[in-house]
Amino acid sequence: MTGHGPDILNRDSGLLWHPYSTLAAGVSYAVTGAEGVRLSLSGADGEHTVVDGMASWWSAVHGYRNPRLDAAAHAQLEDFSHVMFGGLTHAPAVELAEKLIELAPAGLQHVFLADSGSISVEVALKLALQYQYERGQGHRQRFAALRGGYHGDTFATMRVCDPVDGMHSQFAGQGTDNVFLPRPPAAALNSAGTWDADADALAAWETQARELIGAHAQELAAIVCEPILQGAGGMYVYDPHVLVILRELADEHGLLLIFDEIATGFGRTGRFFATHWVDITPDVMCVGKALTGGYLTLAAMMCTSEVAQVLDDSGSPLMHGPTFMGNPLACAVANASLSLLTEDDPEHPGQQRWQQQLQRLQTGLREGLAPAAEFSGVRQVRQLGGVGVVQLTEPVRVAEVTKIAVENGAWVRPFRDLVYVMPPYVCSSEDLAQLTRAVVTAVGEVHGR
Ligand SMILES: *Cc1c(COP(=O)(O)O)cnc(C)c1O
What we know:
Blueprint: H1 5-12, E1 29-35, E2 38-43, E3 46-52, H2 55-58, H3 67-79, H4 91-103, E4 108-114, H5 117-134, E5 142-146, H6 155-158, E6 179-181, E7 187-189, E8 195-197, H7 199-216, E9 220-225, E10 229-230, E11 236-237, H8 241-253, E12 256-260, E13 284-287, E14 299-304, H9 305-313, H10 328-342, E15 344-345, E16 348-352, H11 353-369, E17 378-384, E18 387-392, H12 398-407, E19 410-411, E20 418-421, H13 429-447
Parallel strand pairs: 3-19, 5-6, 5-9, 9-12, 12-13
Antiparallel strand pairs: 1-2, 2-3, 4-14, 7-8, 10-11, 13-14, 15-16, 17-18, 18-20
Bound molecules: pyridoxal-5'-phosphate (PLP).
Catalytic activity: (8S)-8-amino-7-oxononanoate + S-adenosyl-L-methionine = S-adenosyl-4-methylsulfanyl-2-oxobutanoate + (7R,8S)-7,8-diammoniononanoate
Pfam families: Aminotran_3
Main location: cytoplasm
């Protein structure tokens, strides 16, 4: 390694942009190593080894330097690391597409491999427009989305993010001609495993949604949403029955239903896909983030045969083709990651590994974060599957909370009024205790009074 932590921090300063940041803001820590669920950090205040509460933004579900994923990457490197996908194919991509179709809600049968989550959503939106055009519905140019949603940072995806709170309001001049349904009523999965939801609020929401979609039905190509859990838009959990209502509305008005499972996919909400909380299939589904276990950038868009056939019957090619489409290294690691998740748990035959892991996360996060509810500055503590959220009554003092969390052995990256964690699935009960204790301590010291 060239350069130690403080030196790297100095050289980074003013040179590199970090996500959603000014150059001046910089960062406080350099990563000098990562192994299992822990990151080695080096900062002005010294060296720290911390449990990664963020799983590198939902992605590192098997932790770092996982032997199986490392081996898959090495093996593919020995074969070939990249070839163009235009006019060529290869085993890692075909195997991955077959696996995804097997795991996805029944009916999704075709796969487009994209190089990031945002791009997979772009492709989904493009597919919806092409689908409507080939059905003689080319006037359908707009999309319906949920308030509070987040679907990426590229231009078309920005326009289906929440138009006010969605991080992109300064680009409103680029046109947000889309239709936004109110945020669905909040719901919570209780410890008995059933949903606490407000039936009256849901009925009121349904009335509004029906009116809005009805009023714009002829202009709309598709409805797009994050099923059950809105991530970057506020770590917000809503009533699964909303998905059933959206399915009905889409069918009634000839719209495609697009589910963005980029954050929720691969077990994070306690079902393999969040869609599995209800018995419906979207027309189009996007996955990303945890697809390669956090090793390489890769995403996928899947759709039903009914949709794909409309394009193919018209001889209409799906007009997208990134240079690094179907990258073999990424596909090989994704295949290893999906195998790891879905294999039988060695200690619990008949249960897949991810199910066992999610049960441990659920319990660890629920019990570990509960004490935070006592602090005066905490509005709510909530948890769904492998996601735990402490929502404050005020904006998080990010620098202070982060520093105290690191000193107590946890990496978190709060935003707005939220201190939240979605740790690697391979966390032990002890790792989870360390993580949640650090979060509770940091929130208590900074926002407890
Ligand atoms: C992260 C995310 C995206 C964007 O994925 P990138 O890989 O960052 O482009 C889109 N939708 C949702 C729900 C996400 O969480």
